[in-house]
Each structure stands twice: as C-alpha cells, then as structure tokens.
Amino acid sequence: MTSIGTEKKKSSTITVITLAVLLLVVILTCVPYLVSIALAEGPATAAASPIFGVTIPAGYKQWELIAPAEEAAPLNELRAVVGNQTAIDAYQDGKLPFPDGTIFVKRAWKRTQSPDFASATIPGAATTVQVMVKDSKKYAATGGWGFGRFINGKPVDEAQHRTCFACHEARAKGHDYVFTRLAP
Ligand code: HEC
C-alpha cells in the first residue's frame, strides 16, 4: 500500500469516529427532552376521571362566571361555577336541557380572611376542580352528564365519582341536573 493510501484510510477513519461522536452527543442531548415529553404526556392521559373519562378542560380559568357559591363549615369554601360558551349561550337563551358540548367547571378555595381588611373574605388555597360535561349519548346512564373531580390536577377515586350523579339527580333533576343558575 502507498503512503497516500494509508493517509486516506486514516483520515476516513477519523471522519467516521468524529461522526459517531457527534451522533452520540446529539442523541444524549435529546434524551432529556424525550423523557420530559414522555412524562408530560403520561399524566395527561392519567388525568381523566374514573368511570367517565372526563378531563380538566383547557383554558377554563378564562371562562365566564355563571355564579359564585359558598359552602359552610366544615368545608368552608368559596366557589365559582364557570361555563364554556355553549353553557353561557344556553343560559342566555333559556335553553333546557343543556345542549351536548356544555361544560361546567366548579372552582373552589378555602375561605380565608383577608389580611388587609377585617370583614373581607378571600380565596385561600385551591381545593377541588369539579367538571360536568354534557354528552347525551356517551353519558346516557347519568342524565347525559360526565363527571370529574380533581385535586392538584389529579382525579379522585372511583368511589367519590359514584356519588356525583346521585346528589345532582336527587336535588336538581328539574334543571337538567344542574344546580347553578346564572347570577343576576
Ligand atoms: C351531596 C350533593 C353533591 C354531590 C355528591 C356532588 N355535588 Fe356537584 N354540586 C352540588 C351543589 C349543591 C352544587 C351547587 C354549587 C355549590 O353549592 O357548590 C353543585 C355544583 C356542581 C357543579 C357546577 C354545576 C351545577 O350543577 O351547579 C359541578 C361541575 C359539580 N357540582 C360537579 C360534581 C362532581 C364532579 C361530583 C362528584 C365527584 C359532584 N358534583 C358531587 C352538590 C353535590
């Protein structure tokens, strides 16, 4: 073999090694991103409620207020029921039963005394986020409503989800199982 041939062989070996090292660096750089994507997608599917498969709807913190509510001790909570546009339109048009696609979210916080003003009550720590989704076919067995109760973004157990419809049915059947009326 000539010395030029050996030189060529050497430099192509170096090129292959360089490319292999570069590839390894790229792969290692990607691993944390791939892991974080996998983790971020994991809880998204895990965050569906048992029985109903209801999830916390995106952007609900920007939804319109339907009415506030207050819960006495021992829960001692301030609440705000908000709805998506379908819900708001249904109230404004006096539509009952609520159409498919209606979603209600009940936000809740510990009732806390304002540090700035003695008689004022303000929201403390968030407690639960509760959701009702109308789909008359999918949830035919529960008046057309799917339920979800979440604490820190995670759904509570199945036993708690078995209580939802019973209470809404017993007390709010005449208003399509929905308690809250549009605040004047
Ligand atoms: C013991 C009765 C009771 C049970 C059980 C119950 N709710 Fe309710 N729910 C209410 C009352 C009363 C309201 C009216 C707002 C308020 O006072 O907080 C309400 C309001 C709501 C609202 C706002 C729409 C509406 O109907 O006014 C949602 C959403 C909701 N509940 C979800 C749930 C979910 C999810 C469960 C089960 C995990 C559940 N509820 C279990 C009594 C109950």
Q: How many strands appear in the DSSP assignment?
A: 6
Query: CATH superfamily name of the largest domain?
Result: Cytochrome P460
Oligomer: single chain
Total helical segments? 4
What is the top-level CATH class of the largest domain?
Alpha Beta
Structural class: alpha+beta
Mean pLDDT: 89
Low-confidence stretches: none
Order of strands in the sheet with the most strands?
Answer: 1-2-3-4-5-6
Distance between the termini: 95 Å
Q: Give a short account of the largest sheet.
A: 6 strands, antiparallel
**Topology as H/E string?**
HEEHEEEEHH
What is the CATH architecture annotation of the largest domain?
Answer: 3-Layer(bba) Sandwich
Helix amount: 25-40%
Find the CATH topology of the largest domain: Chalcone isomerase
How many separate domains make up the residues? 2
Strand content: 25-35%
Rg for CA atoms: 27 Å
Note down, in words, how this protein is organized.
There is one protein chain. A 6-stranded antiparallel β-sheet has the order 1-2-3-4-5-6. Helices cover 35% and strands 27% of the residues. The protein has helices at residues 3-46, 85-92, 158-161, 164-172, and strands at 64-71, 77-83, 103-113, 121-134, 145-151, 154-155. The model has no long low-confidence stretch (mean pLDDT 89). It has 2 domains: 1-46; 60-175, Chalcone isomerase (3-Layer(bba) Sandwich). It is an alpha+beta fold. The chain binds heme C (HEC).
